[in-house]
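hey so i finally got around to running the thing on that chain from the lab meeting. sorry it took forever, my laptop kept dying and i had to restart like 3 times. anyway pasting the input first so we r on the same page abt which one it is
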Amino acid sequence: MNISIVTVGKLKEKYLKQGIEEYLKRLSAYAKVEIIEVADEKAPETLSESEMEQVKQKEGERILAKLHPDTHVIALAIEGKMYTSEQFSAHIDQLTTYGKSKIAFIIGGSLGLSDQVLKRADETLSFSKMTFPHQLMRLILLEQVYRAFRIMRGEPYHK
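ok and heres what got predicted. didnt touch it at all, straight out
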C-alpha cells in the first residue's frame, strides 16, 4: 500500500518532526508512506472573505497538482466522517481489499481546504469537532494510521 499525506506548509517545530519521523519509521513495516508538502500562500493576518477564498484556491491548486487520478483521496475536514480507531482500521482494510492501493490524506492550511479539493476528495475525515493546528494533524494522522495497521494485523497496541 502507498500512502501519501499531502499537506500545506513546512514543518518547523522540532518536537513534531521527531514524532513524525518515529511514526514514519514504525509505519515502514506496513506501507510506503510519504509526506508531500506544498507551499502555503503568504497572506496578512486579517483577510476578507474573498481573500481567504483566494488563498485556499491557490493552496488547493498546489494540492491537486500532487494527486494522481487513481488515488483514493481522503480530505481532513471538521465536517467529515468520524470513526473510532477500530472503525478507521476496518475502513482502511476495506479500501485495500477493494483495490485502493494508493491513498492520499489531505491536510489543508490554516484556512482549510478549497472547494476544488473537497470536490476531488472521495471522502472527508474528521478527528474531532475541535480545530487542531494543521502541523499537529500530521502527527495525529500518522499515529492513527499506524494504530489502524496494528489493529488490522491483530497486533497489540496501547488502548
